[in-house]
Amino acid sequence: FLSRFCDQRIIPPNNPQRKRPIRKAIPPCFPRSPILYSVRSSVEESMVDLRIGLGYDIHRLEEPGEKIVLGGVEIPYHKHWVAHSDGDILIHAVIDALFGALGERDIGSHFPDKDPRYKGADSRRLLVETMKCVGQRGFEVVNIDTTVIMEEPKIGPYVDEIKSSLSPLLGIPQERVSVKAKTNEKIGEVGENRASQAYAVVLLRSKL
Ligand code: MG
């Protein structure tokens, strides 16, 4: 609408080149003023290239175990996540979201689970590698929002620690890292505590 409106202002009403009829009803909030051109061009010039990405991960939970690692934070538990790396579903979801925002496929294509280099790997190391990729493409993280879904153990007491673990890895302050914890209301494999899930959304912007 703004584009059409501005086009009509470019050609004076009495100019024979004008092909479109003059719009008679002009909304009062759009005064007849050339300032519209400068507003539009300054908006376009100041536009930042934003990219959004969605990530998801799930791992089976099996006994026995001593701890799980979530967002780089160790949480004592009697089960473990069945995974090639440390099974950190939260970081894996964040990595998938970052690659998704870059249009770069998924975590498995960058860090294959058949590669012995990643056996038992600390997922924070994979996140550092992913962030190098983000920087090389000329982007930086604006914020992330995540949800972890698991019946046990309770994640609430560890949320602040997880946020302070992720924040330096992503290069953003803690208030831009959101970690939400839910249960699956005892429904399905997650609700029966046989698996855990995580979702992540990230927003990237081009570096100035
Ligand atoms: Mg995973």
Report on the biggest sheet: 5 strands, mixed
Strand order of the largest sheet: 4-1-7-5-6
pLDDT < 50 runs, ≥5 residues? 1-10
Shape call? elongated
Q: Which radius of gyration do the C-alpha atoms yield?
A: 24 Å
| CA-CA gap between termini | 29 Å
Percent range for β-strand residues: 25-35%
Q: SSE string, helix = H, strand = E?
A: HHEEEEHHHEHEHE
Q: Which oligomerization state do the chains in this entry correspond to? A: single chain
Approximate helicity band: 25-40%
Number of helices: 7
Total number of beta strands: 7
Structural class estimated from helices and strands? alpha+beta
Name every ligand kind in the structure: magnesium ion
What number is the mean pLDDT?
86
Task: Provide an overview of this structure.
- The chain has helices spanning 2-10, 35-46, 89-102, 107-110, 123-136, 159-170, 188-191, and strands at residues 50-62, 67-70, 73-76, 80-81, 139-149, 177-182, 195-206.
- With 208 residues, it is α+β, with helices and mostly antiparallel strands.
- It has a five-stranded mixed β-sheet with strand order 4-1-7-5-6.
- Helix 6 links the parallel strand 5 (139-149) and strand 6.
- The longest helix is centred in the middle third of the chain and has 14 residues, at 89-102.
- It is elongated.
- The structure holds magnesium ion.
- Magnesium ion binds next to strand 1 and helix 3.
